Amino acid sequence: MTTAAAKFKKDVRRVTADLRHRRIINTALDGYAVKRDQKKSLFQDWAEARRLAAATKYEAINSLDRCLEQFARGLESRGAKVHWASTGQQACEIIVGILKERNARSVVKSKAMTAEEIHLNEALARAGLDVVETDLGEFIVQLRDEPPYHIVFPAMHLTRGEIQETFRKRLGDAPSDNPEELTMVARRVLRQKYIQADAGITGANFAVADVGLISLTENEGNARLTGALPRTMITLVGIEKVVPRLEDLALFLPMLATVGAGQLISGYNTLYGGPRQPGEPDGPEEYHVVLLDNNRTRLMADAEKRDTLHCIRCGSCLNVCPIFRNIGGHSYGTTYCGPIGAVLTPVLRGLEEWKHLPYASSLCGACTEACPVGIDLHHHLLEHRRAAASAKPSWWQKLAFKLFAPVAASKLLWALVTKSGRLGQKLHPIVLGTRLDPAYVWTRTRDLPPIAKTSFKEWWRRTRS
Amino acid sequence: MTERENILSRIRDALRVPARRPLGMTETPLPKPEDHRRVLPKVGPSESDRLSLFASNAEELRARFVVLPAIEALESEMRSMRDAEGWTRVASHRGELTDIACAKLGIPVLLTDGGYDKNDLEACQVGVTECDALIAQTGSVLVSSRSSGGRALTVLPPHHIVLARRSQLVADLPEAMALVRQKHHPNYPSMISIITGPSRTGDIERILVLGAHGPKKLTILLI
Ligand code: SF4
What is residue B21's DSSP assignment? Predict the structure, then answer.
């Protein structure tokens, strides 16, 4: 077993047994589901909206070279500097380079999963820069030295009590466990940071090709402040974030908010097109946009999996996934968790090391149904399993099927096995839950479904006669 | 070769093999604004439909929306908010409506137009701005660095007051996007923002808290 797989197994075992964790996540996600459905019902035709969104992303990704060139040209015409990074390391070097050149010390950052993906914070810290996450959830997990738990709700696994404790330890300020008061503590601390910061770093939700604008979605106003006050602004964006036209946002902004957070539209949807323009009173003197590949072109080269680049990182597939709900976001051990993480990670970081993730699915298809851009998620999970199995078949699976084949092929053997199975199940309670139980690996954490009292064949024979 | 060329050539190589279209579609033409309008939440055809939809959206978002009968009512509305909240410093920018709104407040007004000190702006309790449009479908306000006093004025002060004319109320998002293009293409302001309600967060136990980083209060005065 690979190290990632071993760690996954260990974490999963711990988290699934943690009933408190399950309660917190279920409460949060049940509340989300109610709001999401309510907002979805405001749409005149959600199924058609999904088709339109999928068609739009299909066009963007399948003409990505042209879209990116157009996008860069638009930005450059307004004086923004566009950088291209093939790897995460290159992107980190570019960003550190910009900051060093400007003698920047303190940096404010608004939520960006791409930054998590390339471990930007660590690179900035190594370069001696002081980085503060400004999104409240990210700020909390940063204080706790944890990665975000969920791609949209980074601190959803924490209770107000735990957050109070974190604030008391790290900030020396936590008047109560009231969410409003805790939020105000963060507001006070971060206000000063914005004003002092030399540079602001953001992610992006969409890169609008035909006009050369970045689109950023948030609720708190932290990205707005990050883009308003510091002298230098940097946006890190994955090359797949493209939509072809400005008009497409009229569809994507409300869809993202609806399935992402159960809102019709998020609090702030902001377009950035360059540094401060002539006649404008404020804004950064310099605007840098870093376009990141980091194996996205590898996903693209596999035409079968290319649609995974349509992902708008709404988090909806995580929210509906029964496995995510039980094993939690941290168990995946990856930047992108849940079904989309289980599809992306084996390609981005290697199938051999991460092939256990595609098995973290019941293949129920809830993710595929929830995806606003129609990515065939559970199909991709199955494909990964097939690839993993044919690359390196496991000996016990091969053996199991070797034994199974002759049994299934012979009427007599089959009847014998099912009959003795039924008998065996009657005696099962004697050893159930103990090490003597032959099905222990299964029954330790699960119920064993009873074998039907009559088989279909027996039933058929009886009803026909 | 530069990284730009490297990335673009990897993309071009990859795209030689066509991908299957999503959701079983056989063709995927780019949707038009009419297509978007057919699927997005419905907005009634008349002006009063737009007004009442905007009002109910604003209420749900916990923004205050007031329709003023005439421009003359603006001064007195501003004064009564000043007294109720005890403002001592206001920030704003030059504009037809903002000039009237701030003229007779009798307290210092910081104008952002020619640049400003960040700490001074932070010390203001209110930011008074104009806007590009109001969007009925979502209860949103469309602002930009050109129309609304820069980037920070609409987000730094704890109370944001937006002044709009009746003619600025548009029906839906497709109309708002068309307006942005028609007004600015290709010289877009460096920032355009669709603001929907006061700043909010649900990051602590998914409980709604207003005023996470941006304004705790959003007031929209329609004249
Ligand atoms: S795969 Fe689909 S549902 Fe999952 S995060 Fe991406 S867009 Fe959302």
Answer: P
Residue B210 Cα to ligand 1 midpoint, Å, equals 27
Q: Please give the Cα distance from A373 to A253 (Å, whole number).
A: 13
Q: Where are the alpha helices (DSSP H) in A205-337?
A: 222-228, 249-261, 296-301, 316-320, 322-331
Minimal C-alpha gap between A113 and chain B (Å): 16
Residue A48's closest chain B neighbor by CA? Answer: B39
Helices then strands, each counted (H, E), chain B: 7, 12
d(CA B66, CA A403): 76
Q: Is the peptide bond before B186 cis (omega within 30 degrees of 0)?
A: yes
Residue at B3 is within a domain: no
Q: Kindly indicate whether the ipTM for this predicted assembly is greater than 0.95, answering yes or no.
A: yes
Give me the domains of chain A, ranges plus CATH numbers: 43-294 (3.40.50.10420), 405-464 (no CATH)
- At A433 the pLDDT is 75
* 166-195 of A, contacting B, C-beta below 8 A: 179-180, 182-184, 186-187, 190-191, 195
Q: Count of CB atoms within 10 A of residue A419's CB?
A: 12
pLDDT tens digit sequence for B153-171: 999 999 999 999 999 999 9
Structure pTM? Answer: 0.94
Taking the centre of ligand 1 as the mean of its atom positions, its distance from the CA of residue A307, in whole angstroms, is 11
